[in-house]
Design brief:
It is elongated and about 50 Å long. By secondary structure, it is an all-alpha fold. About 75% of the residues lie in helices and about 0% in strands. The protein folds into two domains: about 110 residues, Rna Polymerase Sigma Factor, Chain: A (Orthogonal Bundle), CATH 1.10.1740.10; about 70 residues, Winged helix-like DNA-binding domain superfamily/Winged helix DNA-binding domain (Arc Repressor Mutant, subunit A, Orthogonal Bundle).
Length: about 180
């Protein structure tokens, strides 16, 4: 995508956001259609490749965006604001599941692996990068996605996830190491 088309997209988003902030649902639907695929990809990866969960998180992200649209002041691109809000929706969902699982008592192996992040060593199609990423421990997968795929810095990741910046760096190193091990023939 060239700079000029990116700038046009930004200008179109600005107009749509302004209309949506005035209550125009059609404008918000246009924003949804423009951004849903990228947001779906983000929440799908953060959710470990679970399509049902990704659909739920996608809808929750856009509901939250609609409810918080008046707080968008245009200091960043709408796509940046929406992306961060969506990542926070997915991370919040994970925190709630971890708390609920701990409160309800012992967890089965699959829940514990997803919620807490124990290494998953299931055999499978190791050539598939997305499947390998989905098998990463939760915290390592989250940092890998936010850093390597989405382009956030460690300081931003630390704020979003509540982990120390050094932990973010350690989790990224761990994720890359586990991916290499998983993808080696």
């Amino acid at each position: 995508m060239s700079w000029s088309s990116t700038n046009i997209d930004h200008d179109e988003d600005k107009d749509l956001v302004a209309s949506a902030q005035q209550g125009d649902m059609a404008a918000f639907e246009s924003l949804y259609r423009r951004h849903r695929d990228r947001i779906y990809g983000l929440v799908w990866r953060l959710g470990g490749g679970d399509h049902g969960l990704a659909e739920d998180l996608l809808q929750e992200a856009f509901v939250r965006a609609w409810l918080k649209l008046d707080s968008f002041r245009g200091e960043s691109r709408f796509s940046t604001w929406l992306h961060r809000l969506s990542a926070n929706v997915a991370l919040s969902d994970r925190r709630i599941k971890v708390r609920r699982a701990r409160f309800e008592g012992s967890m089965d192996e699959a829940t514990e692996r997803t919620a807490i992040g124990a290494k998953d060593v299931h055999a499978g199609d190791r050539a598939d990068l997305e499947k390998s990423i989905a098998r990463l421990p939760e915290r390592a997968r989250t940092v890998l996605i936010l850093f390597d795929i989405e382009g956030y810095g460690h300081a931003e990741i630390a704020k979003m996830t509540g982990m120390a910046e050094g932990s973010s760096k350690a989790q990224l190193h761990r994720a890359r190491k586990l991916l290499r091990e998983d993808l080696e023939p």
